[in-house]
Amino acid sequence: MQHVMKQKVTILIVSVLSALMLSGCGEEKAAPSGGIEPKVYTDSLFAVMKADRTNYTKMIIGRLGPAGADSIKPHEYWEDLENGAPLPAQMFRYGAEAVSEMTSDFTYSLQSLWPINAQNAPKTELEKEGLQFIVDNPGQNFYGEETLGDTTYYTAVYPDVAVAAPCVACHNNHKDSPKTDFEMGDVMGGVVIRVPM
Questions:
Q1: pTM score > 0.85 for this model?
Q2: Which one, of 197, 118, 117, lies nearest residue 156 by Cα?
Q3: Measured between alpha carbons, how far is 43 from 13 in angstroms, rounded to an integer?
Q4: For 24-36, how does the pLDDT look when each residue is reduced to its tens digit (9 = 90+)?
Q5: How far apart are CA 95 and CA 89, in angstroms?
Q6: CB 165 within 8 A of CB 173
Q7: Is 8 exposed, middle or buried, given 0-12, 13-18 or 19+ CB atoms closer than 10 A?
Q8: What is the pLDDT of residues 98-134, one digit of tens each?
Q9: Do strands 142-148 and 151-161 pair parallel, antiparallel, or not at all (unpaired)?
């Protein structure tokens, strides 16, 4: 009973946060003197992203992993399998790609100092600095500003922590992984959220 109540509360919180964020998706732009602070904005976005990714990892992938069901198989090359399912990092990337098609108000990505996929390596000096900061300062986020082209961005980097054993095992055993000694609770990378100022 308590488990069901926790699930309902979690779903309610995620729904309310999502509704609040989507309520500002109209054509009107906030006045420059008002609006939400970039840190509050990025922290709120990250809260929803983290909840979705953690729930997918624990409630879906964790149940379907090696000891799980035979009908659906989470796998890096899921599209090549008849009953494949995307891994949590892939679901996260698909979400980021879909958001980029809907809005230019923010971007986000999952990056790492030890990426399995080279496209997930940091590309700017601020991204590198932020990723190193969250590794060196567990539990803390990194915030900064950077100019790319003619636009100044507020950039936030949040720790991506190993929350499920299948994630740790996959990274430690993957042939392309530059780091093979991750443990539960380790920072494996970071979520980079960028908002134009």
A1: no
A2: 197
A3: 15
A4: 444 444 445 578 8
A5: 10
A6: no
A7: exposed
A8: 899 999 899 999 999 999 989 999 999 999 999 999 9
A9: antiparallel
